[in-house]
């Protein structure tokens, strides 16, 4: 019985029950996000939240009951499963509804932020997102290398511009902010170089930034194509 339930949850046999279950969960996720589109909460919003939370609770319970099939670690699976990434997302998407009964304004803001995490539940029920997740997992070393390169370059250019234009940048954080928007070629224009040398640094930073920003896109695209080919 538990094994059949696990197959439905994980869509192992691509059965009609699995597809229906995924559709129900996707519908519940969308419904649970509707109240976040309004500043005010009414009885209809609360009803939608209660129904979607009840569905999420059942899903969490089902996955806890079949954790040993998922993790393949015997009885220890039931201990380790709550600490897995998707299980934490599931739990954080449930808790806001129970915290809502507290009237603290600060807590209510946390509740609204917690509900936003329900978006990430889509990862479990979308094949395309699962493929993308696999790509990120497989290419993590390359992506971490690019991320390290970007962070190092931001820090270096921030130090450089902060030394060249100490009057323009009041704090080193301002220099970090400038280096980040220059690297990504966004350029909001709220902080900018004013000297000739500072402008030259900005030009080089933007040109190199295009190359650094393009690297992750190429890595992910290549990995995505490989993953699609593998699944055919």
Descriptive notes:
The chain has 2 domains: 125 residues, Four Helix Bundle (Hemerythrin (Met), subunit A), CATH 1.20.120; 102 residues, Helix Hairpins, CATH 1.10.287. It contains 12 helices and no strands. The longest helix is centred in the C-terminal third of the chain and has 36 residues. The two termini are 31 Å apart.
List keywords for this structure.
Four Helix Bundle (Hemerythrin (Met), subunit A), 12 helices, single chain, Helix Hairpins, elongated, mainly alpha, 232 residues
- The secondary-structure class comes to mainly alpha
Strand content: under 5%
Mind telling me the CATH class of the largest domain? Mainly Alpha
Q: What is the overall shape?
A: elongated
Q: From the 3D coordinates, which CATH architecture of the largest domain would you assign?
A: Up-down Bundle
Helix content: over 70%
The CATH topology of the largest domain corresponds to Four Helix Bundle (Hemerythrin (Met), subunit A)
Order of helices and strands: HHHHHHHHHHHH
Q: What's the helix count?
A: 12
Distance between the termini: 31 Å
Largest sheet data: none
**Total domain count:** 2
Q: Could you give the count of β-strands?
A: 0
Please tell me the overall pLDDT. 80
Low-confidence stretches: 103-108
What radius of gyration results from the CA coordinates? 24 Å
Membrane topology: Multi-pass membrane protein
Protein name: Potassium channel family protein
Transmembrane segments: 20-38, 44-66, 78-101, 143-163, 175-193, 200-225
GO biological process, one term: action potential
